[in-house]
Specification:
There is one protein chain. By secondary structure, the protein is α/β, with parallel strands linked by helices. The chain contains seven helices and eleven strands. Strands 1, 2, 3, 4, 5, 6, 7, 8, 9, 10 and 11 form an eleven-stranded mixed beta sheet that branches. α1 packs across α4. The chain is globular and about 60 Å long. The protein starts with a helix and ends with a strand.
Length: 248
């Protein structure tokens, strides 16, 4: 995930159409199913898009992200009750526990090895209060196998620049990984100069049962799995699935 240090300069522009409020409200309902959380840890907080919503709910938020530049952007937004920290979601330690822990935008899918996944889950368990929820979304294996990832092109612009991003997937079936090769072209509107950025993001996809088994091994109880945002039963058409565990 360290690649996001270069990517972060254009991140908010590329995802300016992402409905953070809808996603955050959706997560908030899940977190508040038993009682409203007062504290929240976000693994892979990025530039703070979700934290802005949770801040308005009066929740104290701690965010971890491996990208120094992402964290700097998040800090510059000066979001109340939000403490963004550079860190590794497989190796962190706080002297407090949280009511909820979340991880969005398929951050968990960046954990390509079982060992790193187990470390992350164990730390999430250790940093949760009892009856606290661990909630995250991920790439869903049945969907990847049914709807093979294709080349995608995204174009965004503001007053200063135009961006063209080409995402070309490479499927590594034996490892349940899709290597997403990003080719990004940035056109400076004032100088007409074109710069190019290339990155590779290996993303792992999961079956629900394998995540349940790893979560169970560290002490979590399974609550539910559903299609992200729609709350439908996961199917071959579900690009993203949300799963929810609880610490009993």
């Amino acid at each position: 995930m360290s690649n996001f240090n270069k990517y972060s300069e254009y991140y908010d522009l590329l995802y300016g159409d992402k409905d953070y409020n809808f996603e955050s409200e959706y997560l908030y309902k899940h977190m508040s199913s038993d009682k409203e959380p007062k504290s929240l840890l976000e693994l892979g907080c990025g530039s703070g898009g979700h934290a802005e919503f949770f801040s308005k709910k009066g929740i104290d938020i701690t965010g971890i992200d491996m990208s120094n530049s992402m964290i700097e952007i998040a800090k510059n937004k000066k979001i109340s009750n939000f403490k963004p920290i550079v860190g590794d979601i497989t190796n962190f330690s706080f002297d407090k526990k949280f009511d909820s822990i979340i991880s969005l935008f398929h951050v968990i899918s960046y954990l390509n090895e079982d060992e790193s996944l187990l470390k992350c889950f164990q730390l999430a368990y250790d940093h949760l209060n009892f009856n606290g929820h661990f909630i995250f979304d991920f790439w869903y294996t049945p969907n990847i196998e049914f709807q093979k990832p294709e080349i995608r092109i995204k174009r965004k612009e503001n007053n200063e620049m135009s961006i063209i991003r080409i995402a070309e997937p490479e499927i590594l079936s034996a490892k349940n990984i899709v290597k997403v090769n990003f080719d990004i072209f940035i056109i400076d509107k004032s100088t007409k100069e074109i710069s190019n950025l290339k990155e590779v993001h290996p993303m792992r996809h999961f079956q629900i049962e394998e995540l349940k088994n790893i979560a169970k091994s560290v002490g979590f109880d399974f609550v539910l799995a559903e299609e992200f945002r729609t709350r439908k039963t996961p199917s071959n058409n579900s690009n993203g699935v949300l799963i929810k565990f609880i610490k009993i």
